[in-house]
Amino acid sequence: MRLADQWTDFQLLDTSRGEKLERWGDTLLIRPDPQVLWDTPRGPLWNQAAARYLRSQKGGGRWDNPAMLTTQWEIGYKGLRFSIRPTGFKHTGLFPEQAVNWDLMGELIRRAGRPIKVLNLFAYTGGATLACAAAGASVCHVDASKGMVTWARENAALSGLADRPIRWIVDDCQKFVEREIRRGNRYDGVVMDPPSYGRGPGGELWKLEESIYGLVDLCAGVLGDNPLFFLLNSYTTGLSPAVMEYLLGVTVARRYGGTVASSEIGLPVEATGYNLPCGSTAIWTRG
Fold first, then answer.
1. 189: phi then psi, degrees, rounded to nearest 5
2. To 10 degrees, what angle do helices 146-158 and 127-134 make?
3. C-alpha angle with apex 247: 244 to 249, nearest 5 degrees?
4. What is the distance between the alpha carbons of residues 231 and 189, in angstroms, rounded to a whole number?
5. Below-70 pLDDT ranges, the chain
6. For the residues of 52-71, what is the DSSP string, one character each?
7. Inter-residue long-range contacts of 105-110, CB under 8 Å, 24+ positions, other chains counted
8. How much is the pLDDT for 189?
9. What is the per-residue pLDDT across 79-115, written as a single tens digit (0 to 9) for each?
10. How far apart are CA 83 and CA 16, in angstroms?
11. Is 4 helix (H, G, I), strand (E, B) or coil?
């Protein structure tokens, strides 16, 4: 497992009974996590949380402190700054475990020794976009949610990256890639972080497991003649790291050679010294 263990403004303090206790800057939050299957003792810090997200049996949920929905603050990671805002869907606007991939992509871009264009699909609030831009790449940031793209632009401004060559696109990711291929626009790196469930170009409902192969195969076609990397993330438990590695192997690696690696990514738990898995990543690189 690759760990995002270089944070100072974020900390996973403890996990127990289907929940995790996190420190976001100076604010403690309790959020549900389906991976937390153990019933370990809870220390006094659990009683100091500013809010707890409560799941509903009908789906969704709510914060037990509704004021959190109008509260925001900033945290930082290696020069990048992010606005944190608890949402009605338990999220805060950032997946801190992804910092391991931000570091990896940043290093690949800096070592390339040439101009690098990156396409970030399902780009959310822009963690990968900012990391790549800070490393010197030009980035095309694509998300279907106008609100998420606006949030990402705010994060870019907070990070001092507002003047970097970043294209901010509100669009369906599949449709956008199809148009880029027709227009002959190519990229040196692709980042994909698709949701577990979504809607296809025609509005039809789709599950990631049923659609991911076609989506990855399509996006492989937007790479240029000398691509640098293709990174695929998933929070869907049905997609193991080995499955994702296979997907990149039979799509990207089949076209361009190179190597594919995969792993779980996670966060260290302060209270126990163990690590909480938070998703899977597979990455293709040219070398």
1. -145, 145
2. 40
3. 110
4. 8
5. 198-206
6. EEEE-TTS-EEESSGGGGG-
7. 105/131, 105/132, 105/135, 105/189, 105/191, 105/229, 105/231, 106/131, 106/132, 106/134, 106/135, 107/135, 108/189, 108/228, 108/229, 108/285, 109/135, 109/136, 109/137, 109/189, 109/228, 110/135, 110/136
8. 98
9. 999 999 999 989 999 999 999 999 999 999 999 999 9
10. 27
11. coil
pLDDT of residue 79: 97
Q: Dihedral of CA 239/243/248/251: which sign?
A: negative
**DSSP tally for the chain: helices H, then strands E:** 7, 17
| pLDDT at 17 (0 to 100) | 98
Give me 123's structure tokens. 């780009």
Inter-CA distances, 81 with 74, 121, 143, 167, 189, Å = 7, 20, 20, 19, 23
**SS3 (DSSP) at 38:** coil
Three-class SS state of 176? helix
Q: Are 261 and 282 in contact (CB under 8 A)?
A: yes
Closest CA to 191 of 222, 243, 229: 229
Residue 107 makes CB contacts below 8 A (sequence gap 6+) with 135
| Strand order from edge to edge, sheet including 61-63 | 10-16, 19-24, 27-32, 51-55, 61-63
CA separation for the pair 143, 176 (Å, rounded): 10
Can you tell me the distance from the alpha carbon of 47 to that of 193, in angstroms, rounded to the nearest whole number?
Answer: 34
User: What confidence score (pLDDT) does residue 199 get?
Assistant: 62
Pick from 253, 249, 241: which is nearest to 281 by CA? 241
| pLDDT per residue as tens digits for the range 248-282 | 999 999 999 999 999 999 999 999 999 999 999 99
Residue 53 one-letter amino acid: Y
Distance between CA atoms of 227 and 101, rounded to whole angstroms?
Answer: 17
Instruction: State residue 270 phi and psi, 5-degree precision.
Output: -60, -40
For the record, the structure tokens of 249 come out as 């192997």
